[in-house]
Specification:
The complex is a heterodimer.
Chain A lengths: L4 H8 L5 H30 L4 H16 L2 H26 L7 H18 L5 H30 L3 H20 L39 H17 L2 H11 L1 H6 L4 H28 L10 H11 L4 H25 L4 H15 L1 H7 L14
Chain B lengths: L2 E10 L2 E11 L3 E7 L5 H8 L7 E6 L2 E3 L4 H6 L2 E4 L11 H6 L13 H15 L14 H14 L4 E5 L7 H16 L3 E6 L2 H7 L2 E6 L2 E6 L6 H9 L17 E11 L5 E11 L3 E5 L6 H9 L6 E6 L2 E2 L5 H6 L2 E4 L3 H5 L6 H5 L17 H14 L16 H13 L5 E5 L7 H16 L3 E5 L3 H7 L2 E6 L2 E7 L7 H8 L9
Parallel strand pairs in B: 3-8, 3-9, 6-7, 7-8, 13-18, 13-19, 16-17, 17-18
Antiparallel strand pairs in B: 1-2, 1-4, 4-5, 9-10, 11-12, 11-14, 14-15, 19-20
The chains are: A mainly alpha, B alpha/beta.
């Protein structure tokens, strides 16, 4: 071959290689996991004595409740917003090699901070107060997560343990704060906070159609963050360092990337996103803080990040799916009388199958390339 | 026992790893199998051990065709593999490791370790392996660990032993001992397949040689009638020069100076003991020594990965003892790490990403926040052409390249920019002949462009061939210095110094 160097260089820029593998990893495995989980859900219903007809009605109700009407879509997206936001943070952490279990605590701390900041500065106009409140939520979430990051970077304390502990601490901090006179709602003896003023709330998007539609402007925040995290991971300098440290910490160190700083920054970014999730939840839906108001969102977000394969777009779809299960599950309970706990089981099964891609490949051998490795040796 | 491969073809997608291979393995004979990385050696061996099944062709044992269904079938038929990477449990004893999976048991599944030890000792004595059966694996040197691997396959009654790059981890002395064992096994009637890309080893130990290139057997011969040049040409497909051609060094000012550098390792041992040395611009300094005598720590101190306990490191007259890895890199220090998989590259990153692993933040590739990927890809493509990294695209995973190409990728990243000092640690480990030639040429070119070059290698040939000056390390100290202008250093004296004899000519 008598190619000039220039031709050779051009040839090397062919976008080869990742397509198929990435497609299988990002799309095929998660889809199959969802399908198997739904099938297993059916088996569980059968096992608990639900008859076939009811099962059929249950699944129809699930679909209808998730995507069958404007209200259903509104509910689905409303439920998706916090899990996608927190899931983005967790996915980013996974990419950087950090298994952050602490989204729950970061959501609580961010949400609590947003509530307190919101009612403390209720004289500010909407255009200032709302964005500022979100920023406070983000910063507090980031700071709370950075504690675990700093412990890891400075002392080697594993972030799985420290974030779990920080979750427990956050519950108690919340309980304590809700009993403080300047936080607790006037005239209430139960631990519940003052309400977020209107000027701090995320505006409802569809209340001009029907005041019951809960979808709020957090939707745009979520979409913006999907874009931002995609840019951060795949286009920015710091994201490159995150990914390198996650894939091969040794090589990252040899390449001169500051490993300790990267751990703290990745944790803080993840916590910031979880804090935003908490902020969006209190400013868009709950309008106040109460004990355990995160209601396990931080753990659902782990599942969403796993199902979305730590890819921002994947996390968006996974979060919408989980939102749909949440919204559809309620409908299912109403229409078919099937317990909403089933939805929890299905979600858990999805995670099991996602966590075991080899199992998925074993159950559905077709559709996958035979040899993962490909080339010789 | 004789084994024959007849017309064996194995494909992976469009890649033909083995193409109508015919191979005869005979008892009482050492068959040398020579080939570059990626030539299809490992595929062939995996077919023999039953891990892969061939797409075409057949395997015959003592003339009878056999079918292997899985990895266990090879050893059941008497074909045992000794892998390059050991598969031993470090906290188990030798005997426990040997019997692992096929333990002799008594009543109620009682593990009969006494019997295991006796059996291990019997094999040990039969072949003169001299492995202590009750020592923990982690306490044994690498050379002995390798014998434990051999013990394992012998214990499983293998008549054919496949040794995959067995000398890669051994010191020169250990290699000689190892050859003794190979000969003893052969004389006991075992069939040995010795896979390597090291020419002098295959000429020394093999009774018959097969050369593999691009999945085909391209040559067969008698080592007594072949020399290294002929073998290399068969293996690479073109004539290869061995001698590194270089003019005498033109040393200039001091590039790197270490003064009284000492360091205690994590394990609390003295890793570096009062090391004082200089690398000048325009010269290659080689660090010779048996692995584990402080070379790794020396490189870590120079490149900024660890801080010395005492002493000073100066680069171009500046004290950099406490400077970060990145600051040193930006000042023009290149570092080819000793273990590319562990620390030189990210397998799951594209070739392009790997090419900018330590320079992505440079204004050449980045704005204030984001990376200019089109620029990175273009540059990576240029590096690939310049350094002959063979790949269809820079978007493929770095881990998908063969070992030699991975190393060329790392070398390209480090040298294809303005450098002043090159620290090359085992620059050609696990790399084939063609790539070795090229990497050596580039290191000499860096020297001729005025860089200071420090080479750390466990291969004395490499040190002798490249260096203008040779320092010998032993137990964390520089124990001898040799002038190697025109290759005049005394090989024996270096060897003695490596073994700790303090008679070297200290400068």
């Amino acid at each position: 071959m008598s190619l000039s160097n220039q031709d050779l260089q051009k040839a090397l820029l062919r976008p080869l290689g990742r397509g198929r593998q990435e497609f299988e990893d990002l799309v095929v495995v998660p889809l199959i996991a969802v399908v198997i989980a739904l099938l297993f859900g059916m088996v569980v219903m059968l096992a608990t004595g639900v008859d076939i007809g009811t099962i059929g009605r249950a699944f129809v109700a699930l679909a209808k409740g998730a995507f069958g009407s404007l209200n259903a879509v509104s509910e689905t997206l409303t439920a998706a917003i916090p899990v996608v936001l927190a899931g983005l943070g967790l996915g980013l952490g996974f990419r950087a090699g950090l298994f952050n279990i602490g989204a729950e605590g970061q959501i609580l701390m961010g949400g609590l901070a947003a509530v307190i900041f919101g009612f403390s500065f209720d004289h500010l106009p909407f255009a200032i107060l709302m964005p500022l409140t979100l920023i406070v939520a983000m910063l507090v979430g980031a700071a709370y997560a950075a504690i675990a990051g700093a412990l890891r970077a400075l002392t080697g304390a594993h972030e799985v343990i420290s974030t779990i502990m920080l979750n427990l601490i956050s519950y108690r901090i919340l309980d304590y704060a809700l009993r403080q006179p300047f936080v607790q709602k006037e005239g209430r003896s139960d631990p519940i906070s003052k309400s977020v003023p209107d000027a701090a709330q995320l505006p409802k998007l569809l209340d001009w159609i029907d005041p019951n539609l809960r979808l709020h402007a957090g939707l745009f925040l979520m979409l913006a963050m999907v874009l931002f995290v995609w840019w951060l991971l795949f286009r920015s300098k710091i994201g490159f360092a995150f990914r390198a440290s996650g894939e091969n910490p040794d090589a990252a160190k040899y390449a001169g990337m500051p490993s300790g700083l990267i751990i703290v920054l990745a944790m803080a970014t993840a916590g910031g996103l979880a804090g935003l999730a908490g902020g969006a939840q209190v400013l868009g839906v709950l309008e106040r803080a109460s004990p355990g108001f995160s209601a396990g969102l931080g753990f659902d977000a782990i599942a969403v990040a796993l199902l979305g394969r730590s890819h921002p777009v994947g996390i968006l779809f996974a979060g919408i799916l989980f939102g749909g299960l949440e919204a559809g599950g309620r409908q299912m309970q109403v229409d078919a009388g099937v317990s909403i706990d089933l939805i929890g089981i299905i979600q858990a099964l999805i995670v099991v199958f996602i966590a075991a891609p080899l199992l998925v490949r074993a159950i559905f051998p077709w559709g996958f390339r035979k040899d993962g490795k490909g080339a010789a040796e | 026992m004789d084994v024959e491969l007849r017309g064996v073809t194995k494909r992976f997608g469009p890649v033909v790893a083995n193409d109508k291979v015919n191979l005869v393995i005979r008892g009482g004979e050492v068959l040398g199998l020579l080939g570059e990385n990626g030539a299809g050696k490992s595929t062939m061996m995996n077919i023999l051990s039953g891990l892969y099944s061939p797409d075409e062709g057949e395997i015959l044992i003592d003339g009878k065709p056999v079918q292997f269904e899985g990895p266990g079938d090879g050893i059941a038929a008497g074909i045992g593999m000794v892998h390059q990477h050991f598969m031993l449990v470090p906290v188990f004893t030798v005997a426990e490791n040997v019997v692992l999976g096929v333990e002799p048991t008594g009543k109620f599944d009682y593990l009969d370790l006494k019997r295991a030890r006796a059996q291990v000792r019997a094999i040990n004595d039969q072949y003169g392996l001299e492995v202590p059966p009750d020592e923990l694996i982690e306490d044994l040197p690498v050379g002995i660990q390798q014998r434990v691997e051999i013990l394992k396959v012998l214990f499983r009654k293998a008549d054919v032993l496949i040794l995959d790059e067995p000398t890669a981890v051994l010191t020169p002395q250990e290699v000689q001992d190892f050859f003794g064992i190979v000969r003893a096994l052969r004389d006991a009637g075992k069939a040995i397949v010795f896979i390597t890309h090291k020419l002098h080893e295959i000429l020394e130990v093999a009774d018959r040689i097969n050369v593999l290139r691009q999945g085909r057997i391209v040559g067969e011969g008698d080592p007594k009638q072949l020399n290294e040049e002929q073998l290399a040409e068969m293996m690479v497909g073109r004539p290869v020069t061995f001698a590194v051609s270089k003019s005498p060094a033109q040393p200039g000012e001091d590039r790197l100076t270490l003064t009284g550098v000492s360091m205690i390792s994590d394990r609390g041992e003295t890793a570096l003991d009062n090391v004082t040395m200089t690398v000048r611009s325009g010269e290659v300094v080689g660090i010779a020594g048996v692995q584990g005598n402080g070379q790794t720590e020396l490189v870590e101190v120079i490149t900024g990965l660890t801080r010395p306990g005492r002493g000073k490191v100066k680069f171009d007259g500046q004290d950099i003892t406490r400077a970060s890895v990145r600051a040193r890199h930006m000042a023009g220090m290149a570092h080819i790490p000793e273990d590319r998989h562990k620390s030189g590259m990210v397998d799951n990153f594209t070739i392009a990403e790997n090419m900018v692993l330590n320079s992505y933040y440079d204004s050449e590739f980045s704005g204030p926040l984001s990376i200019d990927w089109p620029k990175v890809h273009e540059t990576a493509a240029r590096y690939c052409v310049e350094f002959d990294v063979r790949t269809p695209s820079v978007f493929l995973r770095g881990g998908s390249l063969s070992g030699g190409n991975q190393q060329k990728m790392v070398v390209a990243r480090e040298l294809e920019r303005q450098t002043r000092l090159v620290i090359a640690s085992q620059p050609t480990r696990g790399v084939d002949v063609g790539a070795i030639e090229y990497i050596h040429e580039r290191l000499i070119r860096a020297r001729d462009e005025g860089d200071g070059v420090l080479i750390v290698s466990s291969e004395l040939d490499e040190i002798m061939g490249l260096s203008d000056r040779i320092l010998v390390m032993f137990e964390g100290r520089i124990v001898a210095e040799f002038d190697n202008t025109g290759g005049k250093a005394d090989r024996n004296a270096i060897g003695l110094a490596m073994a700790g004899a303090t008679t070297g000519a200290m400068a």
